[in-house]
């Protein structure tokens, strides 16, 4: 199976109502109820991930794959199945609180379970327009219009060692999966910025588990959330060819479950 077909079949595995062809090698996974059914929409169990060629970055409480630093101690903590962050690690230019992988990755598919565990509170949220800009006040063009919305926190995933290439985890009405660094970059072409805005909000209610399936091939990124396509295809100019993956510090508590990766083009 070539790389493009592999990506297509994994993506189609999660599109509701897709009619599987008999010669599709993944059809049996979608057609037959798993022995250990998912706990929430979009979840994949370890046996399914292994059968698709994924390897774990976090699945058994070990941080062996991650570049932990002294200032992470006591803030990034694990048990057998959950990696928790309290949002309070020291963070700055020389000491980043984000948790990065030791290895770098290029073309890949990444599966990540996550949730925002904090009790939601009402906070002002900016309004994002179709072109990626924020809606600004007419009488004060430097001030954003906001609206009140329940908020349980903010985090995300960074890819290729780039702070711009991010799958956002947040409480915004846009929904998670937004590629924030490219969407907010006004130097980017309008089509690029628009493609970084989710086409739907597929987040589960605050406090519940969610699952990302992020595909990066060349400088193109797509994102599925809870089995729904939220970023069909975003072309990201000047994206590095490879780099580490990070779990983002944003000052809020966040929890991660299974984290698995399939490197495309490697045996």
Spell out the blueprint of helices and strands.
Elements: H1 3-12, H2 27-31, H3 46-51, E1 55-58, E2 76-78, E3 83-85, E4 99-100, E5 108-115, E6 121-126, E7 136-137, E8 140-144, E9 146-151, E10 155-159, E11 162-169, H4 180-183, H5 190-195, E12 210-217, E13 220-225, E14 228-235, E15 246-247, E16 254-263
Antiparallel strand pairs: 1-16, 2-3, 3-16, 4-15, 5-12, 5-16, 6-9, 7-8, 10-11, 10-15, 12-13, 13-14
The number of E-state strands comes to: 16
Q: What CATH architecture label applies?
A: Sandwich
Overall domain count:
1
Q: Write down the overall mean pLDDT.
A: 88
Q: What is the distance, rounded to the nearest whole angstrom, between the alpha carbons of the first and last residues?
A: 12 Å
Principal-axis shape equals: globular
Number of helices: 5
CATH topology: Jelly Rolls
Determine the strand fraction and express it as a percent band: 25-35%
Give an account of the 3D structure.
The chain is mainly beta and 267 residues long. The protein has one domain (41-119, 147-263): Exo-inulinase, domain 1 (Jelly Rolls, Sandwich). Helix content is 12%, strand content 32%. The chain is built from five helices and 16 strands. Strands 1, 2, 3, 5, 12, 13, 14 and 16 form an eight-stranded antiparallel sheet that branches. A four-stranded antiparallel sheet has the order 4-15-10-11. Strands 6-9 form a two-stranded antiparallel ribbon. A hairpin with a 4-residue loop joins β2 and β3 (83-85). The model is unreliable at 1-34 (pLDDT under 50).
């Amino acid at each position: 199976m070539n790389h493009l077909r592999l990506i297509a079949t994994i993506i189609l595995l999660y599109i509701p109502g897709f009619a599987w062809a008999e010669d599709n090698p993944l059809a049996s996974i979608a057609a037959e109820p798993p022995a250990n059914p998912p706990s929430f929409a979009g979840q994949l169990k370890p046996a399914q991930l292994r059968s698709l060629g994924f390897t774990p970055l976090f699945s058994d409480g070990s941080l062996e794959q991650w570049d932990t630093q002294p200032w992470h101690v006591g803030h990034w903590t694990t048990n057998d199945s959950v990696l928790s962050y309290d949002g309070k690690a020291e963070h700055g230019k020389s000491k980043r609180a984000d948790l990065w992988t030791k290895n770098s990755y290029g073309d890949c598919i990444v599966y990540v379970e996550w949730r925002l565990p904090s009790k939601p509170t009402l906070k002002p949220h900016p309004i994002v327009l179709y072109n990626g800009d924020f809606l600004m006040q007419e009488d004060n063009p430097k001030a954003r219009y906001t609206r009140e919305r329940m908020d349980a926190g903010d985090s995300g995933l960074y890819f290729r060692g780039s702070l711009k290439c991010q799958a956002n985890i947040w409480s915004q009405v846009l929904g998670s999966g937004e590629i924030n660094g490219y969407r907010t970059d006004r130097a980017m072409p309008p089509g690029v910025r628009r493609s970084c805005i989710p086409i739907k909000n597929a987040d589960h209610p605050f406090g519940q588990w969610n699952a990302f399936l992020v595909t990066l091939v060349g400088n193109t990124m797509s994102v599925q959330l809870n089995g729904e396509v939220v970023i069909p295809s975003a072309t990201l100019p000047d994206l590095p060819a490879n780099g580490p993956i990070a779990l983002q510090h944003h000052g809020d508590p966040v929890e991660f479950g299974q984290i698995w990766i399939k490197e495309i083009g490697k045996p």
